[in-house]
Amino acid sequence: MIKLGCFIRSLHLQLKQLHQEQSSNFQQAFTVYRGQGLSQQDFQNLCDSKGGLLSFNNFLSTSKEKEVAMNFVQDSPYESTDNVSVIFIMTIDPSKISTSNTPFA
Questions:
Q1: DSSP code of 63?
Q2: Which of 18, 26, 59, 95 is close enough to 105 for a disulfide, judged by CB 3.0 to 4.6 Å?
Q3: Exposed e or buried b for every residue in 25-41, given b needs 16+ CB within 10 A?
Q4: Is residue 50 part of a domain?
Q5: Contact 105, 18 (CB under 8 A)
Q6: CA distance 49 to 54
Q7: Domain of life, per the record (predicted)?
Q8: CB-side neighbour CA atoms (13 Å) of 97
């Protein structure tokens, strides 16, 4: 557990450094995409919470290219017949993030 904690801390510090290096590139709001498969139950829970806060409890890979996200969505039905293909479209506003302690890159 201690080794994993050291790894996570190192990963966080690297992400924080990368965020500081890239933050000058993020002056205006921009959109990123994430495509993935959700179980039908998770999808229903997501629909039921429409308009509410959505949070992810892990690192989230995204792309500025919608086509990249679409590739993940197209593969997800083959993983399980219970899956629903979803594309998350997120608008990132740097003016609101700059005061946050959560780095992104």
A1: B
A2: 18
A3: ebeeeeebbbbbbbeee
A4: yes
A5: yes
A6: 8
A7: Eukaryota
A8: 18
Task: Give me the long-range contacts of 48-52 (CB less than 8 A, separation at least 24).
Answer: none
The pLDDT profile of the chain, 105 residues, written as one tens digit per residue, is 677 888 988 988 998 888 788 777 777 889 999 999 888 999 999 899 888 888 887 878 999 999 999 998 886 555 667 888 899 999 988 877 655 566 665
What is the maximum alpha-carbon separation in the chain? 43
The residue ranges of DSSP E strands in 1-105, in sequence order, are 30-39, 83-92
Place of tokens 């998770």: 42
- Domain of 85 in residue numbering reads as 26-97
CA distances 37 to 20, 31, 90, Å, are: 32, 20, 17
> 9 lies in a domain?
no
Q: How many domains does the chain have?
A: 1
CB atoms closer than 10 angstroms to residue 104: 18
